[in-house]
Specification:
binds iron/sulfur cluster, alpha/beta, binds S-adenosylmethionine, globular, twelve-stranded mixed sheet, single chain, 12 strands
Length: about 325
């Protein structure tokens, strides 16, 4: 499916819940976000019905997100349903990892293709400061369990906060020791993220090169996202960067988002999109839904305007409500 700027849209991030067992300081307030009644959240059948329409229109990859997707009961059953939708090639998941060790067997059985594990530090105290939870051990258990399944692609996402004690080099060590890619995600000025200054990738790369020697940019495309990667000698995995603000990648944006309440969001920054749950629950037929998706994609904004003052119509939700 093409938007009006000729971008091919083949990837959707589907949020399955606003709830989360963590309260990361840049993502969710300590008291959480207002609970959305369960009936306002799309059921797994509704998500699958919409996925059939997305697939028909050319979506090939689905990433399940949240809140924390693994806190929603029966998530592996949704993975299985989505894997059986004709046209869908990959179903992956982004998670904080607390329930990963418990659910990996079921996820594998359901056909999960990849897992992104969000992990910002290996220091238990810093971990507790960032997530407001003392669950590092459980997350590391999930990480090591996931490494037992080489057929499931595994990436670690780390958001640098600019704190020395976060020790972002120890995160890179994971890519040196294990065949996993570690990606540094630039803080985005959405919700609570606005309070933090992003750490530039040039600064990070300099730090990494001081420790590990010269890096080589990786020309081969890895995955379906906007990350660009570097190799370091002696590393089993690669180091990636996703810098939405300083290295804007809107020109090649291939993605749309479905919130847990069924709103199709066409750009991370803007509230533009269309309410598919409303249409679905009013009994709209496939053709109407299909047209609504096409129309929304056609109107996908050209690019975000993070960093500009008074850009207008910006997203007012928290990242946990959008799905990252
Ligand atoms: N709970 C799951 C997790 O943490 O992977 C899925 C949802 S979470 C919103 C998805 C990703 O968004 C996480 O990797 C998180 O670090 C990232 N994130 C949250 N707020 C952000 C912000 N302001 N800027 C950049 N990344 C952010
Ligand atoms: Fe939860 Fe993920 Fe947001 Fe952390 S980043 S609060 S784990 S949704």
């Amino acid at each position: 499916m093409l938007d009006r700027y000729g971008r091919e849209i083949d990837y959707i991030r589907i949020s399955v819940t606003d709830r989360c067992n963590f309260r990361c300081i840049y993502c969710m307030p300590e008291e959480g976000v207002p609970m959305v009644p369960h009936q306002e959240i799309l059921s797994y059948d509704e998500i699958t019905e919409l996925a059939e329409i997305f697939a028909d229109l050319g979506i090939r990859k689905i990433k399940l997100t949240g809140g924390e997707p693994l806190v929603r009961r029966g998530l592996p059953s949704l993975v299985k349903k989505l894997k059986s939708v004709r046209g869908i090639e990959k179903v992956t998941l982004t998670t904080n990892g607390v329930f990963l060790a418990d659910l990996l067997g079921e996820l594998k059985e359901a056909g999960i293709d990849g897992i992104n594990l969000s992990l910002d530090t290996l220091d238990p105290e810093v971990f507790a400061r960032i997530t407001r939870r003392r669950e590092l051990e459980k997350v590391l258990e999930g990480l090591h369990e996931a490494m037992k399944y080489p057929e499931i692609s595994l990436k670690i996402n780390c958001v640098p906060l600019g704190w020395k004690e976060q020790d972002i080099l120890s995160m890179a060590e994971l890519a040196r020791k294990y065949p996993v890619h570690v990606r540094y995600i630039e803080m985005m000025p959405i919700g609570l993220g606005r309070q933090f200054a992003p750490v530039g990738e040039e600064e990070l790369l300099e730090l990494l090169e001081k420790r590990y020697g010269k890096s080589r940019p990786c020309n081969k495309k890895l995955g379906n996202g906007p990350a660009h990667y570097y190799s370091f000698s002696g590393f089993l995995g690669k180091i990636g960067f996703i810098s939405a603000v300083s290295h804007k990648f809107c020109g090649s944006c291939n993605r749309i988002r479905l919130t847990s309440q069924g709103f199709l969001k066409t750009c991370l920054q803007y509230e533009t999109g269309t309410d598919l749950k409303k249409l679905l629950r009013e009994g709209a037929g496939r053709e109407t839904l299909r047209k609504a998706v096409e129309q929304a994609v056609m109107e996908k904004p050209l690019c975000h305007r993070f960093g500009e003052r008074e850009a207008g119509t910006e997203e007012t939700h928290m990242m946990s409500q959008i799905g990252g």
